[in-house]
Amino acid sequence: MVYSQSKYYLALLGLVLSINLKSQSFKEDPGAIHGNFQFDGAYYQKDSAIGADPGSELFRYNAFGNITYTRGGFSAGGRFESYNPPLLGFLSGYKGSGVPYRFARYAHKDIDITVGNYYEQFGSGIVFRAYENRGLLYDNAMDGMRVIFRPKNGITLKGVIGKQRTYFSLSPGTVRGIDGEVNVMELFDSTLGKLKTKVIIGGNFVSKYQQDQDPTLVLPENVAAGSGRFTVIRGGFNFNAEYAFKANDPSYQNHYSYRDGHALIASTSYATNGFSFLLSGKMIDNMSFRSDRNATNTIDMINYLPDFSKFHTYSLMAYYPYATQPNGEIGGSAEIQYKVKKGTWLGGKYGMDITLNGSMFFGTDTTGIPVIKDTANHYKYTTNYGSVGDEYYHDFNIEITKKFTKKLKMTLMYANQFLNQSIVQFNTLDKEEHPDIHSNIGVIDLTWRYKSNSAIRFEGQGYFASYDYKDKKIDPVTNEKNIIGNTGSWVSALVEWTPSTHWSITVADQYNYNNPDITKRVHYYYGMLAYISGPTRISISYGRQRQGIFCAGGVCRFVPASNGLSLSISSSF
Question: Fewer C-beta within 10 Å: the chain N or C terminus?
Answer without folding.
Answer: N
